[in-house]
Amino acid sequence: MTETQVKTGHPKGLYFLFFTEMWERFSYYGMRAIFILFMTDKVMGLAMNDADASQIYGSYTGLVYLTPLLGGYLCDKYLGNRRSIIIGGLLMALGQFCMFLSASAGADGGISIMWAGLTAIIIGNGFFKPNISTMVGQLYPANDRRIDSAFTIFYMGINLGAFFSPLVCGSMDFKWGFLRHVLGCY
């Protein structure tokens, strides 16, 4: 291929990053859609009062947006993008699993497991979030005209995950009592 020919299409890695980010956002916003309900529910949840649940929710949300500063720094200085994304993804998966376990444990032992899960999700997000967007840019050579459309595609994945997750997760619990049936708390 000569330098004057224009490349068309996008690397396969873009679509992998698209789906990875879409499902990460689905997980994050889906959990946020039912998190307060989970913490305050007397039958299935952790039976917390509304004020404590709101404070935990607010702190969690704030820390999720703060930790990427530290995660980006650690990535740049020590870990690199790929390693940071893998560590972040594994920590977030572990955190979501702990959140599931906390629901299974109920109010008795579930609060400690919930804290472990939230901590893992917060730290994992710190490693994951700033680095996956950077990876999109690294798929293309300098001054490649396709990079704008690549970020449009990538951010469409973020928006799809964020849009559908509260609808799906909220519907599963409110319309069908999904969480109560799965956890056997009805």
What would a concise description of this structure say?
The protein is mainly α. It is built from five helices and no strands.
Individual helix count = 5
State the helicity in percent bands.
Answer: over 70%
The termini sit apart by 64 Å
Low-confidence stretches: 181-186
- Please compute the radius of gyration using only Cα atoms: 19 Å
Characterize the main sheet: none
- Beta-strand segment tally: 0
Shape: elongated
Beta content comes to under 5%
What multimeric state do the chains show? single chain
Mean pLDDT: 87
Question: Which structural class best describes the helix and strand composition?
Answer: mainly alpha
Q: Could you state the order of secondary-structure elements as H and E? A: HHHHH
